[in-house]
């Protein structure tokens, strides 16, 4: 993520609260309480990173907080220090409504130490009650096992909750105040490309920016891009991006001269889209001061079909490169760009990226292949993770290059944060990818579609945000695994659709209940034609983030013991957590 977009990253504020009674009580707790705050800050700074790979920064209140004056002093410091997440820690009883953080616009958590000497659990319950009563949902963190009063350990279950809350709360804070850039308008009637400003403003705290696709033509024709970087990018593309077989009928095959012209054009498109999103100081040096500023966009989308692609080369190369974690300048954070301007898929791509630091696969949720259908067509019987059937995830060729799975963790295929990707792994991703001349019947203006096959065996999570009139945004997710098929089986199935596009074979984890009774039900209950696929089983983090933003979750296959929401959610019922989630989100309303 460009520094022109991030400016100063939000920090985590640590609030050590204490029993305010002097003449012995408070004095005996000062060192223990402040030590708890310092250990929490050190733990989070060690385990969490910002999108540029730098360690997360924590700010600790100048003093322990025993009353409202010290709470107000901490709040003033937090505003100066750009704190976007608040964590209160205490080993003892404190005065709840006097010591609590009253900023309703940021996420809150409270860790009450589980010890017998002082009633930290009593304060935790009291202050969470105050948060609920005042309409500021807060997360409660309470270790399962009693600790000795002098213990400096952060128990494993507390670590998990601290990280889950902090990671999700930081994602919400990083999004706030940024923009979604709509490059073009509605694509082929896809509802997700109908920009809903209420979602972005009130649920995400973002603004919406818009440019017509004609801006790309203007910048190409008027040379509003860095010519030196363009030369570098074109040279890198010719050296590293392999041209694949042309799948078009003979009368639609273009000549070498036209093909070279299209390569030049799509490389310029890539530079221009990035500059539109985050700006480029080099443009000011070239006399384009206005264009140098960009649109402060943390995510964006390109309409493409059909008004663009009926005449100009498609955006598949542009979207693939921007969404990847490397390009001609080396490794860098992905720029989140949604195909067909599907802003709802762009939002969850952004969620996934901020939670993991990884590049995302944008895909159509194209086809459910039952075991019987696969065996009928190919003679192959599905086994292992795929024994219940597969979802064919494939779109028009714009998934991140990282989606090949050619990066590795402990010898297994993976998608890693850009700061962990090696040059060799980036080269492998490119080597396993073909850029094939676009299907002219779909894309009359030509271009190049990204074609690769995702390696099997990766834990992944498929996510989608849907909008429902009268209800608002609803999140759904499915954890599962990518799957390897025998080469001939993959080819037989893949060639029934467009073989120039990237394929990911996905097997969701089944629970035997609801939407996850079988793979068909996962497909049948998916809310739209697109999904964002992230490396890792990150469903629990997504559920926590959704609750922070007051977005209910309609389907998931995360173990209930891993679901972490504000404590007030349990006050809406414990027998049916999904119904309680809907009720709580409706009651508290959008965060902003």
From TrEMBL:
Cited Pfam families: Fucose_iso_C, Fucose_iso_N1, Fucose_iso_N2
EC numbers on record: 5.3.1.25
Keyword hit for Isomerase: yes
Catalytic-site annotation from UniProt: 340, 364
Domain L-fucose isomerase N-terminal-2: 178-357
Binding residues annotated for Mn(2+), in chain numbering: 340, 364, 530
Cellular location(s): Cytoplasm
Biological pathway: Carbohydrate degradation; L-fucose degradation; L-lactaldehyde and glycerone phosphate from L-fucose: step 1/3
Keyword Isomerase: yes
L-fucose isomerase C-terminal domain boundaries: 393-556
InterPro entries linked to this entry: Fuc/Ara_isomerase_C, Fuc_iso_dom3_sf, Fuc_isomerase_C, Fucose_iso_dom1_sf, Fucose_iso_N1, Fucose_isomerase, Fucose_isomerase_dom2_sf, Fucose_isomerase_N/cen_sf
All residue ranges annotated as the L-fucose isomerase N-terminal-1 domain in the record: 10-177
Gene3D superfamilies: 3.40.50.1070, L-fucose Isomerase, Chain A, domain 2, L-fucose/L-arabinose isomerase, C-terminal
Annotated GO CC locations: cytoplasm
Entry superkingdom: Bacteria
Principal subcellular localization: cytoplasm
Gene Ontology biological process terms from the UniProt entry: D-arabinose catabolic process; L-fucose catabolic process
Cofactor or coenzyme needed: Mn(2+)
Catalyzed reaction equations: L-fucose = L-fuculose
Keywords linked to the UniProt accession: Carbohydrate metabolism, Cytoplasm, Fucose metabolism, Isomerase, Manganese, Metal-binding
Molecular function terms, GO-annotated: arabinose isomerase activity; L-fucose isomerase activity; manganese ion binding
Family: Belongs to the L-fucose isomerase family.
Role according to the record: Converts the aldose L-fucose into the corresponding ketose L-fuculose.
Protein name (Swiss-Prot/TrEMBL): L-fucose isomerase
């Amino acid at each position: 993520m460009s520094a022109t977009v991030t400016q100063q990253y939000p920090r985590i504020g640590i609030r050590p609260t204490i029993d305010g009674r002097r003449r012995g009580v408070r004095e005996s707790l000062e060192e223990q309480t402040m030590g708890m705050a310092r250990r929490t800050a050190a733990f989070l700074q060690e385990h969490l990173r910002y999108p540029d790979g730098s360690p997360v920064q924590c700010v600790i209140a100048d003093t322990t907080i025993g009353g409202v004056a010290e709470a107000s002093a901490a709040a003033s410091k937090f505003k100066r220090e750009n704190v976007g997440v608040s964590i209160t820690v205490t080993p003892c009883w404190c005065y709840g409504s006097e010591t609590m953080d009253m900023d309703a616009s940021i996420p809150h958590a409270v860790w009450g130490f589980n010890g017998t000497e002082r009633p930290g659990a009593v304060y935790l319950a009291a202050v969470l009650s105050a948060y609920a009563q005042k309409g500021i949902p807060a997360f409660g963190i309470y270790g399962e096992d009693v600790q000795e009063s002098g213990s400096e350990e952060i128990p494993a279950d507390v670590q998990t909750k601290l990280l889950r809350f902090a990671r999700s709360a930081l994602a919400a804070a990083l999004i706030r105040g940024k923009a979604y850039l709509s490059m073009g308008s509605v694509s082929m009637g896809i509802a997700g490309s109908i920009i809903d400003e209420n979602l972005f403003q009130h649920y995400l705290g973002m603004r919406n920016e818009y440019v017509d696709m004609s801006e790309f033509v203007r910048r190409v024709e008027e040379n509003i891009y860095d010519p030196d970087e363009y030369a570098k990018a074109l040279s890198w593309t010719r050296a590293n991006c392999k041209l694949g077989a042309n799948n078009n009928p003979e009368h639609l095959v273009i000549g070498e001269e036209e093909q070279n012209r299209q390569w030049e054009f799509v490389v310029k498109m890539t530079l221009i889209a990035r500059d539109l999103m985050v700006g480029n100081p080099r443009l000011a040096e070239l006399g384009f001061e206005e264009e140098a500023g960009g649109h402060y966009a943390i995510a964006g989308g390109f309409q493409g079909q059909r008004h663009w692609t009926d005449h100009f080369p498609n955006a598949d190369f542009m979207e693939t490169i921007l969404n990847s974690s490397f390009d001609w300048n080396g490794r860098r954070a992905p720029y989140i760009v949604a195909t067909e301007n599907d802003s709802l898929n762009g939002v969850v791509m952004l969620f996934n990226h901020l939670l993991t630091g990884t590049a995302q696969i944008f895909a159509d949720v194209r086809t459910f292949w039952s075991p019987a259908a696969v065996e009928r067509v190919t003679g192959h019987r599905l086994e292992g993770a795929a024994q219940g059937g597969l979802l064919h995830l494939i779109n028009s060729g714009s998934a991140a290059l990282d989606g090949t799975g050619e990066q590795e963790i402990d010898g297994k295929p993976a998608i890693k944060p850009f700061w962990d990707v090696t040059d060799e792994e980036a080269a492998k991703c490119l080597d396993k990818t073909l850029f094939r001349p676009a299907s002219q019947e779909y894309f009359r203006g030509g271009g190049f579609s990204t074609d690769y096959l995702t390696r099997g065996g990766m834990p992944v999570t498929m996510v989608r945000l849907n909008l429902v009139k009268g209800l608002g945004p609803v999140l759904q997710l499915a954890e599962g695994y990518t799957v390897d098929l025998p080469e001939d089986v993959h080819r037989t199935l893949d060639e029934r659709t467009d073989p120039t596009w990237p394929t990911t074979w996905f097997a969701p984890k089944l629970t035997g209940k609801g939407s996850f009774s079988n793979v068909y039900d996962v497909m049948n209950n998916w809310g739209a034609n697109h999904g964002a696929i992230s490396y890792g089983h990150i469903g629990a983090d997504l559920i926590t983030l959704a609750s922070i933003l007051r977005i209910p979750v309609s389907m998931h296959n995360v173990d209930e013991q891993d679901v972490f929401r504000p404590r007030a959610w349990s006050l809406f019922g414990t027998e049916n957590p999904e119904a309680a989630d809907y009720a709580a989100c409706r009651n508290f309303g959008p965060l902003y």
